[in-house]
Design brief:
By secondary structure, the chain is an alpha/beta fold. It has helices spanning 9-31, 35-48, 64-69, 84-96, 135-145, 165-185, 190-200, 205-213, and strands spanning 54-58, 76-81, 103-107, 120-126, 146-157, 217-224, 229-235. The chain has one domain: Vaccinia Virus protein VP39 (Rossmann fold). 46% of the residues lie in helices and 21% in strands. A seven-stranded mixed β-sheet has the order 3-2-1-4-5-7-6, with helices on both faces. Helix 1 (9-31) packs across helix 4 (84-96) and helix 6 (165-185) runs antiparallel to helix 7. The longest helix has 23 residues, at 9-31. The chain is globular, with a radius of gyration of 17 Å. Residues 1-7 have low confidence and may be disordered.
Length: 236
Amino acid sequence: MQVQSEGGKKEKVRNMFNNISGHYDFLNHFLSFGIDILWRKKMIRKMGKFHPQVLLDVATGTGDLAIEARKIKPEKIIGIDIAEGMLKVGEEKIKKRNLDSLISLQVGDSEDIPFSDLKFDAAMVAFGVRNYENLDKGLADMHRVLKTDGRIWVLEFSKPKKFPVKQLYNFYFKNILPLIGKIVSKDQSAYTYLPDSVQKFPSGDEFLKHLNLVGFKDLKMFPLSFGIATIYCGKK
């Protein structure tokens, strides 16, 4: 979960996600009716066809994507995030599953990834790229740490275009989701930030242009659930 640093926005959102970290997993699954779990599974299955061994999970949050990625039997998974509270929840989940030797989490900024060039076979991010301060900078840093022929995998909300999914989606995102999020998490801003960030994000073909701009090729996208979310992938 990376956001703008200008005007203290990165610190503001870091604090926001730290504040809701204890409720984050419950709300994620409840507000998406559990579909977010299926979306992660689908992306990991696609990734598994390429047999990556060393994985980077950017904006890992509470580690759901990293934990799911264990199923493709990599050698190592490293997750980074700026929200210490989210990482703490993730570390507890990893410990309960006895995955400490496979998955490690640490504080790290998505636009200044604390690893050397050419380190990872795959870099992945779920529901995080729309929060980058500088989208191209964040994507370029993921490109930098990938090995030659390494692949980027992105799972992100998108904007459905067809009736009636578009209308139902917009109503739910703008009215129901923020209300439930506020009641459960006690954070007024967290779940109004979500729909706002989705609306501003350049999804679909526009996002592919950003991947291409920083050097990725063989670009593909896979819309999910009538376009509510999309999986994107590309090769270095």
